[in-house]
Amino acid sequence: ATAPFAQSPIAWKCIEPSPVEAKAVERVCPDDPLPSVDVVKPHFEARFVGVGAGWRKPTWKLGFKSLQDQDVKLAADALAINSIVQKLYLNQNSISDDGAKALATSFKFNKSLTEIHLQGNHIGVEGGRALAESLKFNSTLKILVLGNGSHSNHIGDEGAKAIAISLKVNTTLTRLSYAARCSCFQPARLLALNCTLHDIIVHNF
Q1: Residues near 201 by Cβ (< 8 Å), separated by ≥ 6?
Q2: Phi, psi (5° rounding) for residue 37?
């Protein structure tokens, strides 16, 4: 199993970011070893080849597969050491906080993923915070879809705030789609937080 990362506690302030505030974000790099390809790859292929993913495929289409956290943890171990996959579709499954945390850990290692779709799952506040933390480390992800119309998650205001905080230091994300009521997810505020975002889709439900 992938080992967890240390996280940096940051108090949320709904204000415009300053350079000093952005530099103050502590980044704790992992010391734990990556999972072995020889161990992970056979299990990954046995579970996912034939249902929308393959070790050497650039797109893993795993949406609408009734996947649960244990499935996603296996996919996350694979993501951490795979350098080919670019797009990951995990929409409309049964992923909760545990699965989201495993994915978040893998995003800190992965150097190829540019797009992920997670709408229509059961990710809560803790999962949202973990995903937010991963955005501070990941340097390739460009598109993050957490909500799309009525297909959302349950990360709440606290998860939304954590993601907004991470946008102060993330320099690669260009598109964010989410369903939220939280004021910190207003497009104008997010654009003020991040200089690379240019496509923000907020579905107010």
Answers
A1: 148, 175, 176, 177, 178
A2: -60, -40
CA-CA distance, 165 to 112, in Å (whole number)? 23
Handedness of CA 60, 38, 27, 19 (dihedral sign): negative
The first and second tokens of residue 33, run together, are 């070893």
Identify whether the C-beta of residue 85 lies closer than 8 Å to the C-beta of residue 115.
no
| 201 phi/psi in degrees, rounded to 5 | -120, 110
pTM of the model as a whole: 0.81
Tracing tokens 């998860």 back to the chain, one arrives at 159
The answer to whether the CB of 8 falls within 8 A of the CB of 112 is no
Residue among 103, 96, 102, 93 nearest 67 (CA): 93
Q: Which of 97, 106, 115, 91 is nearest to 179 (CA)?
A: 91
DSSP state of 122: -
pLDDT digits (tens, 9 = 90+) for 7-39: 333 332 333 444 433 443 334 445 557 889 999
